[in-house]
Amino acid sequence: MLQITISKRAAFMVLMAVLLVIPVVALAGAVFDDVSDGSTHIDGITFMKTSGVSVGCDALNNYCPKDNVTREQMGTFMYRLSGNDPATPPSVNADTVDGYEAADLMPGFLLVDEGLLGVIDNVAAGTEVCITADYTPAGDEFAVLDGRVSARHDTSSGDLWLRTAISTDSGATWTDTSSRVSPEEVVTTTEDHAVSYVDVVELTGGTTYTFAIEVNGSTFDDMRCQFLVTLMPRSA
């Protein structure tokens, strides 16, 4: 009888051990062993681990989800989240947004700001002013061309209009970026009149470009120009 009683007790103890282990096995998840994949907090806890903000509470891959957080631990979490921790990559990084490098996300600029140009003759056929330096994009880009010209006649009145031009041979020949022109401005004597023009052109990677403002109208005694070219990447 004694042997039978011991066997039943042993079987009972084995059964209880199995029942205690089963919930733990069912609870184990893919991120931490003590966090179920069905937890309502699984997304946040997954972020904590994959981003490096939390590596768990022990060496057994446990998160200890019910434990309190000390101010010391909070400081470490905030330090890692801020992106200042060299060992923890920032969760938002301008270097990798949508696959672009930071240099691609920040537009480049070509700026020509010329003071008094003096007498500009024979502009009726088109004269290029505010010519930029040569520029060769590494990839396909957009160029926003923003030109501004002010002019004055000393002895007579005349008309002024402009548009932008582009060259692929360092300014030896020019092509208008559009068939349209700016509104025509009547330039009277002794008064400065300003005209602006904005256009957008597509640039092909590997091609060298030069940009300019094409001035049309009369012969002007004084002229000033400012030309801003904003460069940004475009999809292939």
Could you say how many structural domains there are in total?
2
What general outline do the C-alpha atoms trace? rod-shaped
Structural class: alpha+beta
- Low-pLDDT stretches are 21-26
Which CATH-level-2 architecture of the largest domain?
Answer: Sandwich
Strand content: 25-35%
Largest sheet entry: 5 strands, antiparallel
Radius of gyration: 36 Å
SSE sequence, one letter per element: HHHHEEEEEEEEE
Terminal CA distance reads 86 Å
Number of strands: 9
Give me the number of helical elements. 4
Describe it:
- It is a single chain.
- Strands 2, 4, 5, 6 and 8 form a five-stranded antiparallel sheet that branches. This protein has a four-stranded antiparallel sheet with strand order 1-9-3-7, with no helix packed on it.
- The radius of gyration is 36 Å and the shape is rod-shaped.
- It has helices at residues 2-27, 42-50, 71-82, 102-105, and strands at 108-114, 127-129, 141-152, 158-167, 175-176, 185-187, 193-203, 210-217, 222-233.
- By secondary structure, the protein is of the alpha+beta class.
- It contains four helices and nine strands, in the order ααααβββββββββ.
- The longest helix is centred in the first third of the chain and has 26 residues, at 2-27.
- The chain folds into two domains: 2-90, no CATH class; 103-233, Jelly Rolls (Sandwich).
In short:
This protein has 236 residues and is an alpha+beta fold. It folds into two domains: 2-90, no CATH class; 103-233, Jelly Rolls (Sandwich), CATH 2.60.120.1340.
Q: How are the elements arranged and paired?
A:
Blueprint: H1 2-27, H2 42-50, H3 71-82, H4 102-105, E1 108-114, E2 127-129, E3 141-152, E4 158-167, E5 175-176, E6 185-187, E7 193-203, E8 210-217, E9 222-233
Antiparallel strand pairs: 1-9, 2-8, 3-7, 3-9, 4-5, 4-6, 4-8
